[in-house]
Amino acid sequence: MGAKAKIEKFWTGDPIDSLRVNPGFSLADVDTTSTPGFDGKKKHSVEALRKGASIFRHQQEMFFAGSQDGDERKVLLVLQAMDTSGKGGIVRHVVGAADPQGIDHLAFKAPTKAELSHDFLWRIRKQLPGAGRIGVFDRSHYEDVLITRVRELFPLETIDERYDEINAFEQELTDDGTTVIKVMLHISSDEQKSRLAERLDRPDKYWKYNPGDVDERLHWPAYQEAYQVALERTSTTAAPWFVIPADHKWYARLAVQHLLIDALTRMELSWPEADYDIKTEKARLRAS
Amino acid sequence: MGAKAKIEKFWTGDPIDSLRVNPGFSLADVDTTSTPGFDGKKKHSVEALRKGASIFRHQQEMFFAGSQDGDERKVLLVLQAMDTSGKGGIVRHVVGAADPQGIDHLAFKAPTKAELSHDFLWRIRKQLPGAGRIGVFDRSHYEDVLITRVRELFPLETIDERYDEINAFEQELTDDGTTVIKVMLHISSDEQKSRLAERLDRPDKYWKYNPGDVDERLHWPAYQEAYQVALERTSTTAAPWFVIPADHKWYARLAVQHLLIDALTRMELSWPEADYDIKTEKARLRAS
Lengths: 288, 288
Hints:
Chain A is of the alpha/beta class. The first copy, chain A, has helices at 2-8, 16-19, 42-67, 87-93, 113-116, 122-125, 147-150, 156-175, 189-201, 211-217, 220-234, 249-266, 278-287; strands at 74-81, 103-107, 134-138, 178-186, 241-245. A five-stranded parallel sheet of chain A has the order 2-3-1-4-5, sandwiched between helices. The interface between A and B is large, with 42 and 42 residues. Chains A, B: This is Polyphosphate:nucleotide phosphotransferase, PPK2 family.
């Protein structure tokens, strides 16, 4: 693919294999400052991200166009991370390059009482992307095995059952033509500390800080463990996890952009053929 | 305002008054090739749009931030136009500059049977933006007085009642803190013809063409009349219409961007104060 070739220029190697969570994966062994597959620095990332954005935008339009012609495939990007890891930046700088008309962005908050009265996947199912659309989940059904596990909001047996339920759910999505891209942005505890400190230093960032952020932070090791278990148990062939070192925001953005471009490239998209007679239509138009 | 001053540089005058639909307005008298308030050419518009995007992005973030602090105001941008007028380009190039997390984009298609069994505003109400969000309606409740009138889908008396119902509805939105920005992108019949012809000439545009587009085109005068009536009867103090000459796509984009920036500027936004004690939180964070 031409698009593929253009991307390779900016990468020393395809980072996908080294980012994918395979058997034996250990979250603790990931260097959060590393930049797998990308040899450049921040200054080199700007141009790479810009070029990637143009490729992504083009592919996303073709993907959307295909759905108008009966292609029923969908993409779902799941973003999970500790606070301040840069999910918002991914949405702005990576997803934001695409046409808003083809993006379904959803930020999942703590479930409401009504939502809690249903199965945990109930509210997730309602927000799944339709054909030709890229759904972006900022937090997701994985909160139901992360914060719930750390805070002991449900019995461990209930949580334990959910990993299999999630795998079955994601297999169903895949069978239905959804490419599920699951991303954990991974920062160090020290990096989080300095990002939270910045929010307390800048009046234009005060609103992003919440005293509850420090409460959660005190559970850092328990969260890392909950992530480790979730990654182990739900990184499947149908819907693998990618853990992206995110101390360098610019790298995380490049890597997620790369995952999106890779997924769309593998779809082998093309512009839909006309489903009308072009000559006839030209004549009708001329006469109108 | 600083932002306001920066915008003025690119404009010879504020275009808002000349774009607003006031009593005595006549759609037929609008020159679709004109560029009210902007003296430059296409090449000058690029930099103006880029600078405007940065102002818009900044204001939109502040608007969103305010909602986390209890500000309940909302913005609703309604886009109406004949086919090929460039609604999609507005969404991509103007709205697309903002953070996708703060945008609710909705494209209204022909109503389903279920939707038709309700009042025409039922499906619209369900999609209204929440606090701190900018809703973007690509087509809207105005279709219920446009295509329905031209195609005689409802008795004229029913449609006639709807203008008042729309005014009451929009007054209610305004009372509830929603700034309603209603935009009609206005192109000439010849411009539409050449844009449709382009879609029939370019394989990457075939998917955007639909034989029904020519069917609708044959009703051009009736649509212009339906627009004239809608504009006359629903351009209110609470929710005025703006008719934007759109034969130059670049001008239409600048003008809609200007309307959005103007609306946000008039809100006199500022970053929310911290609702926690900064010193205490810094100490807690240090200790964490």
